[in-house]
Amino acid sequence: MHTFSVAGHVVGAAKAAPGLHLVATPIGNLGDITLRALQTLAGVDVIACEDTRITRRLTERYVISAQLIPYHEHNAEAARPKILKLLAQGGSVALVSDAGTPLISDPGFKLVREACAAGIAVDALPGPSAVLSALSVAALPTDRFFFEGFLPPKAVARRARLAELARIDATLVVFESGNRIQDTLADLGALMGGRNAAICRELTKMHEEVTRAPLLELAKVAERLETRGEFVLVIAPPDPEAQLMTEGALDDMLRDALRHHSVKDAVAHAVVLSGRPRRAVYARALELAKESPTEAMREALSETSGDHGED
């Protein structure tokens, strides 16, 4: 007899149907789980999870005795064939992530793909999602959004990716870790400073915080930000009525950017914020770099030698 317990009451659970069950689990508050999820977790043969220690907190809370096995990016190649074999023999497996909905910035895609290819039944049990929770409380447009997941950890790659994201006409949703949140906010302030945004930290948990302000303001307070916990950043789409930046403001921005970045990076930042054509911004950046007496700008200019790829 499979069972689970809710508020001290033991509830019977039928044996889960054969197949792979994708079960959404709480993103923080263990009370945020559906009855169907509990019935499935209690009724499967095996629960495949990223970290058995994290999932065990959930199974112990609801007195679920199903076997836990690890399935994550580091052991997937070895673990996947064993799970598929169990499924092929008529077994039932629940796939869960550490928090939220499986496959959303979590491993599992290849397992689902191969299970489907083998004709194994796959079903999804909807539930908690950090993406949707953040969108709900951010007070920003939700009619169209783009989920980026985690940004590249290295600064140059991150800024390049943010420059691409800045052109997307939709609200942006980004995951970030505590040890990179301050650097990411600084880059966002430089690239999309005028847009409204929300920092969502520790959603559904005891110390949940949601801070709403323009990105430039959030970047300024980033150094005082509590960095412990999980972060979701929600950023408003570009304003279609925003006017072109004045030439004087563009020059000021480029001069500041050229003190710290290459011409190419400075131009990428300025194009997004100014609304001006890339070719015109690039030409102006070269002129300012030539005029500047600083060594940093001369080095930046030297990087462009022979570069005729801007358009």
Overview of this protein structure:
This protein has 311 residues and is of the alpha/beta class. It folds into 3 domains: 127 residues, 3-Layer(aba) Sandwich (Cobalt-precorrin-4 Transmethylase, domain 1); 105 residues, Tetrapyrrole methylase, C-terminal domain (Methyltransferase, Cobalt-precorrin-4 Transmethylase, Domain 2), CATH 3.30.950; 56 residues. Helix content is 40%, strand content 20%. The chain is built from 12 helices and 12 strands. Strands 5-4-6-3-7 form a 5-stranded parallel beta sheet, sandwiched between helices. Helix 6 runs parallel beside helix 10 and helix 10 crosses helix 11. The N and C termini lie far apart (68 Å). The mean pLDDT is 89.
If you compute it from the alpha carbons, what radius of gyration comes out, rounded to the nearest whole angstrom?
A: 24 Å
Q: How many β-strand runs? A: 12
Task: Tell me what the CATH architecture of the largest domain is.
Answer: 3-Layer(aba) Sandwich
CATH topology title of the largest domain: Cobalt-precorrin-4 Transmethylase, domain 1
Helix content: 25-40%
The average pLDDT score comes to: 89
What's the helix-strand series?
EEEHEHEHEHEHEHEHEEHEHHHH
Taking pLDDT < 50 over at least 5 consecutive residues as the criterion, the unreliable ranges are none
Write down the oligomeric state: single chain
What's the CATH C level of the largest domain? Alpha Beta
Number of helices: 12
Helix/strand structural class: alpha/beta
What composes the largest sheet? 5 strands, parallel
Q: How much strand?
A: 15-25%
Backbone shape: elongated
Spell out the CATH superfamily of the largest domain: Tetrapyrrole methylase, N-terminal domain
Lateral strand order in the biggest sheet: 5-4-6-3-7
Distance between the termini: 68 Å
How many domains, in number, for the residues?
3
